Amino acid sequence: MSELSTIPATEQNLAVQNDTHGFDEQPNQEAPIFHDVLIDGEPAKAGVGSFGGYSTRIVLLFDPPHTEFGEEFATKYFMFEDDESGVMKWGHDGRSFLVEKITSEA
Fold first, then answer.
1. Which of 3, 28, 78, 102 gives 20 to 30 Å between its CA and that of 93?
2. What is the reported pLDDT for 1?
3. CB under 8 Å to 15, separation ≥6 — which residues?
4. What is the pLDDT of residues 27-47, one digit of tens each?
C-alpha cells in the first residue's frame, strides 16, 4: 500500500487556479481543477474559489460519499485557523474539518 505525503491545507494552497469569477468578461469554460486532500482522514477533492459566483467559497467533493454530507459540501462561511494547522472551521456552530493537502504518493 502506498503512503501519502501531506501538508496542512490553507485557503491559499487550495485555490483553484482556473477559477472563474462572476465579474470576468470572458469566463473560463473549463471545469475547475480541484486538489487531492484528506478530510478527517478520508480521501476527497477540494477547491477554494468563486466558481462563477461573486464570493469566495470552499467546495469539497467526497468519493466515496461522506456519511453526513453525501458527495459534495460547499460553504462561503469557512476559515482556516492560523494556530491549528489544517483545521477549517465552517458554518456558525463551531464545526470543523481537518484538511490535509496531498502532495505525493510514495
1. 102
2. 52
3. 47, 48, 49
4. 677 889 999 999 999 999 999
Domain count along the chain: 1
Pairwise CA distance, residues 71 & 50, whole Å: 19
Q: For the segment 62-77, what is each residue's pLDDT rounded down to a tens digit?
A: 999 999 999 999 999 9
For 9-77, the DSSP string reads: --TTTTB-TT---TT-SS---SPP-PEEEEETTEEEEEEEE-TTSSS-EEEEEEEEEETTTEEEEEES-
8 Å CB contact between 106 and 6: no
Residues 47-57 pLDDT 10s: 999 998 899 99
Q: Which cell is 16 given?
A: 483553484
HSE-CB for 43 with a 13 A CA cutoff: 8
Amino acid letter, 49: G
Residue 61 sits in which domain range? 4-23+31-105
Q: What is the three-class DSSP state of 84?
A: coil
